[in-house]
Amino acid sequence: MSKEKKIITSEEFDLAVQIIADYKMQLDKQLKEVLVRNQKIDIQGDIKENSFRMLQRYYQMYYGTKLNWEDLKTMDRHLLEAIDYDKIKQIKGCGRMSLFNLKKLMISYSVLDRTEL
Q: To the nearest whole percent, how much of the chain has pLDDT over 70?
C-alpha cells in the first residue's frame, strides 16, 4: 500500500458526511423501534371498565388470550399499537362512546395518532 496521502475534494467530503449521517439516522431509527417494541405501558389506572371489557373480548376473540385486570399494568406497547379498531367495533356490546374513550386513552399514551380519533 502506498504511503501517499490522497486529497479529496469538498464534494467527496460532503458525500462521505452525508453517508455517515444517513447511516446514523438509520441506526437511531432501528434502536428506537427496538426500545419501543419492548416498552411496557401501565394503563390500569386510566382505563374504564367498559373499555377493559372490550379489550378482554377483543384479545379473547382474535388472540385467544384471556386479558386480566392485572395485565393492564404491563401491556406491551406493540400489542396496543396493533389493535384493530374496526374489529373492536364488531364486538357485541361495544358502544361508540367506549370505543372513543379507548382511542383517547391510546392517544394519551402516544400509541395511536390523534388523526385516528
A: 94
